[in-house]
Amino acid sequence: MESNKQITVTSPLLPDLDEFNELLKDIWNRKWITNNGHYHQELEKALCEYLKVPYISLFTNGTLPLITALQALRITGEVITTPYSFVATTHSLWWNGIKPVFVDIDPATGNIDPDKIEAAITSKTTAIMPVHVYGKPCDVKRIQEIADKYGLKVIYDAAHAFGVEVNGESILTAGDMSTLSFHATKVYNTIEGGALVMHDEQTKKRIDYLKNFGFAGETEVVAPGINSKMDEMRSAYGLLNLRQVDKAIEARRQVAVKYREALCDVPGISFFDDMPGVKHNYSYFPVFVDAEKYGMTRDELYFKMKEHGVLGRRYFYPLISTFSTYRGLESATQENLPNAYRMADEVICLPMHHALSGEDVERIINEIKR
Ligand code: T4K
Fold first, then answer.
1. What is the distance in A from the centroid of ligand 1 to the CA of 237?
2. Closest ligand 1 atom to the C-alpha of 315?
């Protein structure tokens, strides 16, 4: 029976229900359930400390901080971004009336290729929006040099990069702002949720206004803000999950070690190694299928696994640039994005989460090996 159970790509990290109930009782007693409440403030403090960032503003998901960061920085015109991401990255530009300009990725990381950014800059370019895809850090130094040279802002979509550090420093302090997603499927979740990381108090204040309709006090509205506030229940849940996230990341790391050991000699299957000096969060475990060498296409393997109850996901296929909203853009062509097209056609993210058993991992590995 056990061996027929479905293994999903992820499974949410859930706090202890009794502990959560205790906090819910406290929220009931306080009768303050949203709008910068006690647990909201506590979670912002705790996350600043855990993530080693100066300021953070909680959001109701990981999409609205992208939209709000663009608004706060008054980004207009064109923004250079990657097609190899979840569609929310590019949608945030659309919501601000900004034209996305797609730049190809570096096949060694899946992240935007800094060598190709300059050629895409025009007089209308105002910012770069890279993604630390799968939590692998972008080349933030090179990207900043280009941004400084052309006077561009940089907003990182760090939805996958919770807790990722480079040489002991948070990746979330790179650029002008970074966004996080705390969706149920992420390493750290608040059910739905997200955050924006910024460098200074002034910006934090502005973001806090923008996520509350633009209110800067009882009667003053300073900008056309949106409602994207996190409530007290999810903030409390988030505080509890923060206590166990290190353990969950360690469990994920152990799964990654097993995958790498077992799959390193399978012809036609490749994967990323850990990067030197980087504290990874093991949010995803993408493998890439070279059909000729493996003897099966990615899709053949994907559906075969699915038939046997192993539910990997093809993150990120199809590319954002192929969706109807974006496919008419000049930068959306396959000729412009050869590496992204290839990666999207070869990738399967294997199940990766804290609760995978040794038996689960063995089943997944056998699916690929047989
Ligand atoms: N930027 C990037 C780079 C992103 O990847 C994302 C989100 C965003 C921005 C936007 O952040 P949010 O606004 O979403 O906070 C998922 C997530 O919905 C999405 O958050 C995520 N990226 C994206 C990569 O994946 P789906 O449609 O693949 O999820 P779904 O519902 O098919 O779930 C996948 C598997 O997870 C299920 O088969 C089983 C498991 N699962 C899922 C849920 C929701 C559970 O076991 N329990 C659950 O409650 O999009």
1. 18
2. 24
What pLDDT score was predicted for residue 282?
Answer: 98
Q: Which CATH class is domain 17-103+110-240?
A: alpha beta
Quote the strand ranges of 36-183, DSSP E: 55-59, 78-81, 99-102, 125-129, 153-157, 165-166, 169-170, 177-181
Where along the chain do the CATH 3.40.640.10 domains lie?
A: 17-103+110-240
Per-residue pLDDT reduced to its tens digit, 172-216: 999 999 999 999 999 999 999 999 999 999 999 999 999 999 999
Q: 65: part of which helix (H) or strand (E)?
A: helix 64-72
User: Is there an atom of ligand 1 within 6 Å of 11 CB?
Assistant: yes
Distance CA 300, CA 279 (A): 34
Instruction: For ligand 1, pick from 63, 81, 185, 305 the residue to mutate: most ligand atoms within 8 Å of CB.
Output: 185
pTM more than 0.90:
yes
- 370: pLDDT confidence band, cut at 50, 70 and 90? confident
Domain 244-369, CATH: 3.90.1150.10
pLDDT in tens, 224-245: 999 999 999 999 999 999 999 9
